[in-house]
Amino acid sequence: MTTKKIKPNSQKKLFVLDTSVLLYDHIAIHQFKEHDVAIPVQVLEELDNLKNGNENRNFEARAFIKLIDRISKDKLINDWIPFPNGEPGRFKIVVHEKVGKIDAETILGSEKIDHKILNTALYLQQEANYSKVTLVSKDTCLRIKAKALGLLAEDYETGKIKNAEDLYTGITSLKDVDAEFINEIKLEKIVPNAPINWPQQNHFYFIKKNRSTTPVFYNLKKNETELVEKNKIFNISPRNLEQQAAMHALLNPAIKLVTLQGNAGTGKTLLALACALEQRKNFRQIYVTRPIVPLSNQDIGYLPGDVKSKIDPYMSPIWDNLKFIKEQFSKDSDMSLKIDSWVSQEKITITPLAFIRGRTLGKIFFIVDEAQNLTPHEIKTIISRAGEDTKIVFTGDIYQIDTPYLDAESNGLSYLIENAKSHPLYAHITLHKGERSELANLANELL
């Protein structure tokens, strides 16, 4: 069967997607509205090489290949075909090896597939009848090369927030609050309604009066203001008001989704783990996990030893936090033994995120550490797996990203904070004050 050629329209724009975009979001081809989308055949080859494995990029590669198979059905896709279900725009796999007036491989070298992708985009720019041809890539260096060769290039914007500097913090400091309300909240602990017009979201307020500060939490669902008290949780005491607020959200059974964002040493993972242990009887299991970001982007398979010895270096920060909690019970040998038994019985499971895939997250206290290394799509996938009575906590630092093609504005943690902030099941706290040591604080503040 042959496909009738559909000539591109000069009013349309053409977007050429590279591999990094599809590994970030496998449905990216549907995000360009009425315009046309071209995929160089070399991208398919790269995706084919990445389709095996348990990392997120492997899942995205497989998902895109299956998506293209569904779209094409009995059609040929080396020429323009409309998207199914009446979607505007058209799609094509570009398979030719033609070179335009500018040859990226001659200029930049032929050893990289990226340069073949550049050549495809350059040829389309020269030959196709479009108002604009743009290479879309998450690879900053590839975008710079494209622009140097006279080709428009841009980042993939879907899933990006506008400005990480203005990201929602979850906390507001107030000064002009009636002293009568402050006295009432301290006495009653919970006050219906609010003294001023709180925004329509769960939110923490640090009310300053004279030299004292009273932390409160506005509960959107109940339309109540709650006093945020300082409590020792599993022998861990909050060292500042931000940590106090974080504990309040982590211990609140009505809050099913919590994000903690902040610099290293602010106590994010430790607080989440301590609060999980405090509530252990309310949950079937405690999962503590983090995405593995292989060194130099190599798969962990090259590391020596069995699976446990391969992944333990990546999980060591979580084990360090559990060890710190155990040390708080140095005079209580029974509790220390209990914690060890919970680990051996898998009541507490510490494992890479890839090993959690496919499991049922029912009645689980689920902590995802280093969530800034996840894509928005992966964050959505994790939350969508939550069963009844599950609580999910994401922790991370959006300025310490180890994953290629993610930044402070495009990572999944920033995306979640920005998009979930008005939901009654959600609370967020940005922690600024480091509590690791004075020397660690120096690094965060000065270097």
UniProtKB/TrEMBL annotation:
SUPFAM superfamilies, A to Z: P-loop containing nucleoside triphosphate hydrolases, PIN domain-like
Keywords attached to this entry: ATP-binding, Nucleotide-binding
SMART domains from the UniProt entry: PINc (SM00670)
Domain of life the protein comes from: Bacteria
InterPro entries: P-loop_NTPase, PhoH, PhoH2-like, PIN-like_dom_sf, PIN_dom
Keyword Transferase listed: no
Residue ranges of domain PIN in the record: 13-144
Family to which this protein belongs: Belongs to the PhoH family.
Identification of the protein by name: PhoH family protein
UniProt organism field: Pedobacter flavus
